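thread: overnight batch results

M.L. [08:02]
morning all. the overnight job finished for the chain we discussed friday. pasting input first so we're all looking at the same thing
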Amino acid sequence: MNWENGLEHAVVSDIGMRRATNQDAFTVVLANDEGAWRKRGHLFVVADGMGAHAAGELASEMAVSGIAHRYHKYKDLSAPEALHRAVLETNAEVHQRGQANTDFHNMGTTASALLLLPQGAVVAHVGDSRVYRLRENVLEQLTFDHSLVWELRASGQLPEDSAYADSVPKNIITRSLGPNPTVLTDFEGPFPLRPDDTFLLCSD
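M.L. [08:03]
and the structure it wrote out:
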């Protein structure tokens, strides 16, 4: 993959028709030379905040900026290790901010990060924002939703044809950045890259 012209990307964020504020945030950090591409690749992050009094907006902005900054700070670590450290430390920062102000108490955010590296694509994920890959007209979800519905189905407690499936709230997530001092993050990959692969990061 040619680091300079082997990638096209686009971003869009829309408030939608039901909410007064947009609690989504994103960042794109592209390598600025071939050396940076080989060591750190291209980074994309999407976050969807939760909380009243603008807490969700703050949490998502802290997530995308914190992950991007810390990822590039740990130059002595491998790219996946640096991303892992960045997510954990950003979670701690969001949590501390929430504890320090009653208006922001229990604020949180989803976070999904995609690294495109010479050795493949690496995904870090907390919450129910998703990362997809489109390859040869097949759309594959690369992340597992940390939601009550998905967790129940994965454990076999909620079969697809269950009569109770529609009664389980679909908006309850089981993991997010911020509410707790530590967070368990899913890591996927590396997925080898092919020409014409398309990746999609999106909130719910």
